[in-house]
Amino acid sequence: MLFTVTVRRYRRWLVGKGSILAAALALVLAAAPTGLATDHLASECVDNSDPTRTTPVEGDVFMVAAANPLAVQAGCDVLASGGSVMDAAVAVQMVLAVVEPQSSGLAGGTLITYWDRENGEVRFFEGLSRAPRAVTDGLRTPTEEEKALLGIDEFENEVAVTGRAFGVPGTVAVLEMAHEIYREMAWSDLFDDAIELAENGFPMPAYLHTVLGESTRGLERCEYPDLAARFCDGATPKTSGTMIFNPELADTLSYVRDGGADAFYDPEGPIAPVIIDRITEGGYKLKNDEEGPAVIPSLMTADDFADYEATERDPVCNVVIKHLICSSAPPAFGGVTVLYMLELMERGKVKQLEPNSLPQFHLAIESSRLAQVDRRQYIGDPDFNKIPASGLLDEDYLDTRFELFSPHLAIHPILPGEPPPGDDVFFGEDADATSHVTIVDANGDALSMTTTVSSSFGTQMEAGGMILNNVQENFTRLDSISPGKPVNVMESMKRPRTSMAPTLVFDRNGKRLRLAVGAAGGGAIPDYVTQIILGVITYKMDPQAAINQGHFSGQTITSNCAGIIGARSELESGTGVAALLDGLKTDLQHPCARTTSLLSGLTAIQVEQNGTLLGAADPRRDGIAMGR
Fold first, then answer.
1. Do the beta carbons of residue 37 and residue 1 sit within 8 Å?
2. Residues 103, 205: contact at Cβ < 8 Å?
3. From CA 554, how far away is CA 544, in angstroms rounded?
């Protein structure tokens, strides 16, 4: 079987390699079943991969980068067979649903920024999960009937890992929407790899094993029954390389393969009622404890699935650092935040600063902190509020915001500004569980796609083999310390905002693609994306070197930033940049600076002047790039 050949090729990569991924793949492949049929996999993709993630993968025809080698290989195979970027994206997402369930899946949400080279057009497809029709004024707020029944005024934080936190998923709808426009292959031809892996098993990836070993809301993940049944041996996660089987997901994938989005969203179909049964069962248990997780039923009905629609929105585009950069539009704040940060850093003459130096990180973090307080104040679902996205990127407004910056002293306190309303027209001159996919095909079309179940493992619940999102945790609580509460409070059928920032970078005229990039990693996603753009475009790094840098962030809010609410200054612990902490605190007086884990999940594809493609993926997770 070709799977055996594929195993040999992976092992050839691993000879003499010391990376975490190499060790993980060795465990994974040692456990792989010789009977798994993968004769269709494109060998040229496998041969042109670098699992060490030290140098970019080169190609001159097409490239795929995503969070798991099996998913990347599936997408690469589709491109090698003449498929489009969108064909490959569907195949990649379906495999990720199987092998990376902690981060993305069919019961989550997805954003796609797409470059249509033939028509010279950037398009943005939005499939974020949303609230059901029946809601209260916040995730922790019971209904009046529940208040009377339970004798409480609010739920505890554990509500975020119950059925109540689940939002109507958008991933299947948005993938089908974009695929109908940009397909070369039939939808039904893109599911074989995912169904095979779900039915016949896949080796436990290293990152999945790591996340399973963590706790959430006071319980170890193996204390959540749905996760324990599939991924754990008693109280501990199964070891890396152990075969994981998901026949229920294989059935769900088969339904979606044969029936498309209609099969997924039909309130009387094979999927939606199964999800509703899971999220509404069990009565009430208000706390996580030694007897198991909390149980708070959802207010959703199967008709909420029938009401869901993905949508196409105008991308957020602006010319900054002499390039046209296009990214995600609200309800995502990621795109606006990336452009806002780059605008401020350009005003701070970032090109003249040494990368990863104290002056450069000071400028970057201050730009991020200013962007954070503004995006919290103003960005939410544009179907419910007027969002001044273009006002936040207004040149005069950004000039006034940059006037707050000092190269010698951190801003404190840091408060939202007052942008002009803006016309929301762009283009021309102008608890961390996500996954990112970047693809360029043989025709020059490109896609940057970020996909999520919200927190790692979402609700910690399964239905139909799918991990169920907990997106409603992303609404802002009425008693939150965050500014901007009205714009992001829970409302019926509303989409909570998200940090996702799938981004495309072009030459100044928008004619030639230079970089496709995006990231997993929670609130710091805009920081990660901004850092890679600067690394590749401004500092002329290759995309792998840019990804491998130590990170910064200014996207965390705290109630105690030198005694008041404020934006933290963060450096990635365990990296060389952590040594800058003293300088931030002592020399520049950042009031609440710290080192912390900044676990990005970046992927990027650079398009060089001669057309060479350079693919890269984040060594912090299991991802890889493959191409030809």
1. yes
2. no
3. 23
Task: Note if 236 is an active site residue.
Answer: no
pTM more than 0.85: yes
| pLDDT(28) > 90 | no
Please tell me which residue in 171, 216, 434, 595 is annotated as part of the active site.
Answer: 434
Distance CA 123, CA 425 (A): 14
Asked if pLDDT for residue 57 goes beyond 80, the answer is: yes
Residue type at 441 in one-letter notation: D
Q: Tell me if residue 347 falls in helix, strand or coil.
A: helix
Residues facing residue 237 across a β-bridge: 232
The CATH number that domain 312-432+499-618 falls under is 1.10.246.130
- Residues 66-93 pLDDT 10s: 999 999 999 999 999 999 999 999 999 9
DSSP 466-505: EEPP-GGGGSPPTT-SSS-GGGGS--TTPPPPB----EEE
Contacts of 293 (CB under 8 A, 6+ apart): 158, 161, 162, 217, 219, 223, 224, 225, 285, 460
Give the side-chain half-sphere CA count within 13 A for 39: 3
334: left (phi over 0), alpha (psi -120 to 50) or beta: alpha
The CA distance from 581 to 593, in Å, is 7
CA distance 620 to 501: 19
User: Domain coordinates of the chain in residue numbers?
Assistant: 1-309+433-498+619-628, 312-432+499-618
626: tokens are 């493959």
Averaged pLDDT for residues 516-532: 97
337/531 Cα distance (integer angstroms): 12
Separation CA 2–CA 46 (nearest Å): 12
Query: CB neighbours (10 Å) of residue 245?
Result: 15
Q: DSSP secondary structure string, 119-144?
A: TTEEEEEEE--B--SS--SSTTPPPH
Percent of the chain past pLDDT 90, that is, above it, reads 88
Cα pseudo-dihedral 175, 178, 184, 186, rounded to 10? 40
- Helix pair angle (69-80, 192-200), 10° resolution: 150
pLDDT band for position 15 (cuts 50, 70, 90): very low
In this structure, what are the phi and psi dihedrals at residue 36, rounded to the nearest 5 degrees? -75, 120
Answer yes or no: are the C-beta atoms of 1 and 34 closer than 8 Å.
Answer: yes
569-572, strands of its sheet edge to edge:
552-553, 569-572, 593-596
Query: In angstroms, rounded to a whole number, what is the distance separating the alpha carbons of residues 334 and 502?
Result: 8
Mean pLDDT, rounded, for 152-161:
96
Q: Long-range contacts made by residues 288-292, C-beta under 8 angstroms, separation at least 24? A: 288/158, 288/161, 288/217, 288/218, 288/219, 289/218, 292/219, 292/223, 292/224, 292/225
State which H helix or E strand residue 220 sits in. strand 219-220
First vs last C-alpha separation in the chain: 23
Q: Three-state SS for 609?
A: coil
Rounded CA separation 510/534 (Å): 18
What tokens were used for 386? Answer: 């007027």
> What's the rounded Cα separation, in Å, for the pair 86 and 184?
8
- Asked if residues 355 and 539 have their Cβ atoms less than 8 Å apart, the reply is yes
**Rounded alpha-carbon distances, angstroms, from residue 140 to 47, 130, 224, 363, 477:** 51, 17, 21, 37, 8
